[in-house]
Write the structure tokens for this entry.
Amino acid sequence: MKRMKVLIAESNPSVRQFIRYTMEEHFPQFEFEVATNGKNIKKRLLETKFDLIIYESEMPMLSGDELLEWRTEQDRIKSVPVVIMSSDRREESLKTAIRLGANAYLIKPLLMEHIVSKIREIMGKQNRNPKDRRRSDRIKTEGTVTVKFDNKVCRGNLINVSSGGILGIFNRKDGLPRILDKVEVDLEMDSKQSLQGLTAVVIRIQAVDTVTGLDYIQLVVKFDNTIDPKKKEEFRSVLSTLQRGALT
């Protein structure tokens, strides 16, 4: 099988090495090339087929915005996913990068789980089967979600639910659980349906790459095997009602 090729463009040696080690550990199917500045980047991208570009926004000789703007004019690479990394936390900078076509905007200092979850999400979208059952199972709904963990509580807005878990958006300032933490979830949907005490595990935490702002985090929890059978049946009933509503 042909290995996927990734370009890591980062001027700081320690950050560049951290990204490469992280990627090699979690994505052994990738082959890597690195760049320390923007010199000859355009030429390299036109001559070598990359499957993913991880690029420093403040790269000397060719900034991230300049790369994104040029990329939109190149048929050969305009569909190649680009992850922009930056220490610039201003919402205006994030909006500009997303408007220019960045697939993700990661804030420095980088966290390993953020890099891994974002790359998995991007590559999953690239290779996703449109008939993927898990994707079609998700139902967009509005309401509030409360996550309890380690005697702490955080509340956020519900984005979607599925038979396997829940996606919500939270303010990072409220304090959040970590990847693989066990949590208890309460739901209060705008449809007036509510559920309490659903046991789950946090499987993904990622920054929100939208105009919502950099203070917000998407959190995905997956129901675990300890969920009470009665709670599970109650949730299935609510999910069935939401599914019928989505079809009408």
